[in-house]
Every structure is written in C-alpha cells, then in structure tokens.
Amino acid sequence: MTQQRVAGLLAAVLLSACATPGHLSPPQETLKGAAIGLSADNAAKEPALAERWWEVFGDAALDQLIDKALQDNPSLAAAGARLRRAAAAVARVESNDTAQVAARFDATSQRFPEHALYPPNIAGTHQEIGSLQAGLSWELDFFGRNKAALEAALGSVHAAQADAQGARLLLASSVTRNYLQLARLLEQRRIALRTFEQRSEVLALTRRRVQAGLDTAIELRQGEGALPDTRQAIEALDEQIVLRRHALAALAVQPPTAMDGLAPQLLALHGAQLPERLPADLLGRRADIDAARLRVEAATQELKAARADFYPSINLIAFAGYNAIGLNRLLEAGSEQYGAGPALRLPLFDGGRLRSALQGRAAELDLAIAAYNGALLEAVRETSDQIASLQSIARQQEQQDLAQLSAESAYALAVRRYEAGLGSYLIVLSTESAVLIQRRSHADLLARALDSQVELMRALGGGYVADALADPLHARR
C-alpha cells in the first residue's frame, strides 16, 4: 500500500511538472469586407474576366508574344519549383501517418570485462556481437498533431499554386504594358516626323519671306533652331522604342534584336469594357489575396500542431530479428528476438523549447494575418485607383476630342483660305502645329486608357478563380 502511494505521489509530481504551453495572446483579426467598403456577398459564379484577358485588345502579335513569355520565362519556372517544393513537404508530412518500417544490421567487436555481470565463458574474452533486426513504428495521432501538420502543408501547396497563377498574371500584364508603350512611342514618332516635315516647310517659307523682305533674320534663326530640337525629340523616341523592344524580347526569352521589326499600331488596338464601380466579388479572385488567406489557414494549423506537441506521443512499436554473441551464430536457432508494445512519450522538462516554438508559431500566424490584411487593402486601393483613373481619362478624352476637333477645323479653314489666296501658308503651318499637338495628346490619353485597363484587369485578378486550383494531394488522403 505504501509503494502504491509513493508511485501515485511520484506520478502526480511528474504530471505537475509537465511542459505547459502557457498563455498566448489572441491572434490578430482579419479585415472584414464591410470595414473597407466591400459587399458581404462575395460569391460570383462565373469570372467576369477571361483567363486570356489580353485578347480583348485584338492584336494577334500581342497574343503570340504573351504565349511565348508564359511558356519560357524563368520567373514561372521559379514559381513552379516553389510549388514542387511545397508538394514534397506534403508528402513528407503525410508519411507521419503511416507505419515506419526499418531494417538494420550491427556488428561489433568487443572485449567483455571480467568484473561485470557476464558468465565465466564470456567474461575476459574478446567476442563479436551481431544484430540483424527489422522494426516497425506507428504513431497514433490521438491529439491531431499530424493532421494539423498535414493541413498546414496542404495550405502551403495551395498558396504556392496561387502564387504561380499570380506570377503568370504579372508576366502577362508586364508584356501587355510594354507592348502598349511601344505602340504609343511609335505613334509619337510618326507625329514627330510630321512635325519635323512641317518645321522644315516653315523654315523654307521663312527663307523665302526673308529674301522678299517680309521677315527678318530673327524669324529665320528661330526656324533654324526648331529643327535640331525636333531631331533630338525623334532620337529620344528612337531610344525608348529600342529599350521597349529589348524589354519585350527579355520577357519572351528571346535575343535583344528579335523584336526589331515589332511595330504595333496604337490606333488599331481595341479597348475593354470594365466595371465602373468597385466589384467586391472580383477582389476575392485575386491570386495574391487567396495566397495570403491560404497562408493564414496554414499558419493556424501549424499553431495547432505546436500545441499538440505538449500532449503525449503514443507509438505502437514492434521488432523481430536475430542477436547473438559471435557472428557465426547470428542466424542459428535460439538467436531470434522479437517484441511488440506501446511507447508513450510525454515532455516534462525541456528548458522552454516547446513553449518558445509555440510562441514562434503564434507570431507567424500574426504575420500571416497582417500580410493578408495588407494584401486586401492594397487590392482595394489598386482597383479603386484604376477605376478612378479610367473615369478621369474618359473625361479628359472628351475635352481633348473637342479641342482636337477645333484645331482640325481651324487647320481645314486655313488650308481653304490659303488655296483661295486669302491667307498665307505660314498660317496653315501654324494651325497644323496645333493639330499635331492635339494628336500627340490624343495618343498619350489613348495609351494611358489602355494601360489603365491592363492595370485594372490585373487588379481584378485577370480571370483567376480560387476554386479552380488543382488539388491532387487531397485526393490521396
């Protein structure tokens, strides 16, 4: 009876000394849609943007360029490698729920002491000890440690899948934006060439007027100074055109000179019909937000796994094999050994290692929540900014169209007056300058509108659908 009391008291002391998780502060809160101006209804059935959203611009060369970039760009290869790494981690964690079988063979040459608990025929002799054994171990996941670790690993895989889709969207939008900027530069160069021709005509007319005594050398010098300025502007445009072509070649994994003949026509590109208000249902289809959400879920499961480390670990173990003193007798009858039974491990004194690990997981969860909140706020800002920009550009285009119509009308009137002998050609060239300025403004505004459309389609997720993530790992469970 006394021994039982001592054993019970000892057990109570040991259990009271077990490692405990201590107190953890509650995790941060994820932002709710209503708090940042989003609708609670977030369940659109079909994506509003097509997966190949760039085809709305109606340019076959752009389509081919993006296809080439999506096939060969190294950034996508890196995203694929990260996805495979995450999948390998899932397979490693899954193995914890299966029986582990191992075989081992040991051979040791040993002298047995004479003054120890060995029989006389062994004491003081030099013997070889051999062991050939197969062992089995199977951890019983009573407290959900392995399940939580597996869910965390699966969440990381799905986050990596979302990251890969986000990398594809970023690459496609980069190609499209560079392509549109190249089209803008080429249109600006065409207008600059016409400006150079016009200024050359003005200079020739000024020379004739000076010879006729109608102008002075001041007007002549002003006309001569305008030509180098225009040549410099054309050269600067040529530089930017070359750089844009080099950028597109790099994105498509081609030599820098591969795009030398690429010449998109800005005025031939089509625009896209996009929402005029913040579409809350599409923000949930952004790959970066979905990846951040999945990482929050993975971090939550990792915290659960860290908590489970404080509970007992229960294993079923079994072994069978041979053990003998003398390798020549290892496989003889009588050298067999086998056994089976449960094994229980309970952390008692670990110097705070488990508690520190738990606190680290809690901090990682807070970091994941902060990253999710930041991604959501950034998505709302990006989408709102692009919608506002598109609305403003549309209003600017309306006013610019009126200004260009006025300039074109003045130019047509000046031409008719000149043809009728009622006005000078200098006035014709002067009014054409106003037309060229308006055409440059038109090209800039059109390029800005198309670029903002690309940015808005990127901000809306580019047709990404979270439910479409491949899930072969869950099927194996």
In this structure, how is the largest beta sheet organized?
4 strands, antiparallel
Work out the helicity level.
Answer: 55-70%
Determine the N-to-C terminus distance. Answer: 50 Å
Mean model confidence by pLDDT: 80
CATH class of the largest domain: Mainly Alpha
- What is the SS-derived class? alpha+beta
Oligomer: single chain
How many domain modules? 2
What is the rounded Rg?
38 Å
Q: Could you give me the name of the CATH homologous superfamily of the largest domain?
A: Outer membrane efflux proteins (OEP)
Relative strand content: 5-15%
Number of strands: 4
Total DSSP helices: 10
Please state the second-level CATH architecture of the largest domain: Up-down Bundle
Low-confidence stretches: 9-17, 42-47, 470-477
Q: Please trace the helix and strand order, writing H or E for each element.
A: HHHEEHHHHEEHHH
The spatial strand order of the largest sheet comes to: 1-2-3-4
